[in-house]
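R.M. (postdoc): so does anyone remember the format we settled on? I'll just put the structure tokens first.
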């Protein structure tokens, strides 16, 4: 007899990169939109809005975030 969780352990695994709020590093933001490979999120902890970019597997090693638009709100750098 095989328990269901043992069957689950046989399922294929695909990579997943958890992403975090660029300001407070909280995970699991609210997702409020999508445009192509871009998804729009709002942090549920601090309210910061940010975007995520869906990558192909071969892009994971070379990902370089595109520059932010000039009108976006300035982020505080560091933990001061
Ligand atoms: Zn946040």
């Amino acid at each position: 007899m095989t328990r269901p969780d043992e069957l689950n352990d046989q399922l294929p695994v695909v990579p997943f990169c958890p992403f975090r709020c660029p300001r407070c590093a909280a995970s699991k933001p609210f997702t409020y939109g999508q445009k192509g490979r871009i998804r729009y999120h709002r942090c549920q902890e601090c309210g910061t809005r940010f975007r995520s970019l869906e990558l192909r597997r071969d892009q994971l090693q070379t990902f370089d975030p595109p520059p932010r638009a000039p009108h976006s709100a300035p982020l505080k750098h560091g933990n001061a």
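R.M.: ...and that's the designed sequence above, right after the tokens. Also worth knowing: The longest helix spans residues 4-8. Residues 21, 23-24, 26, 43, 45-46, 48 surround zinc ion (CB under 6 Å).
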